[in-house]
Amino acid sequence: MPPRIPKACRKQGCSLTTTDSSGYCSKHKQANIGWVRHQKGKSRHQRGYGSAWDKLRKQVLQRDRYICQCDECKRLGIIKEATHVDHIIAKAHGGTDDLSNLRAINCKCHEKKTAKERFNR
Question: Is residue 11 within 8 Å of residue 32, measured between CB atoms?
């Protein structure tokens, strides 16, 4: 099998290249493992999403009338059904479960926002 072609590191602003499957150079690879370790091998209860979260989630969805509150939908005036609850500041980045940090969000919008957060650390 031929060797991998070096590609730019996924860390924004990094000028180094890598052949690692993670997409990160050796300098940034360890820094980005934190997100994976935060989630890997833990149940939803261990990650803080137990019965208390279920009650809070329902409260946020009702407060926001099951309408997506993501920045893009609000800016464009798009109305989408919200099925998820989003931490405006992610828990992995220091956010809390305070009501002011939670909003109802559409599944696809939540996926986009989470993907962005993973790469804009």
Answer: yes
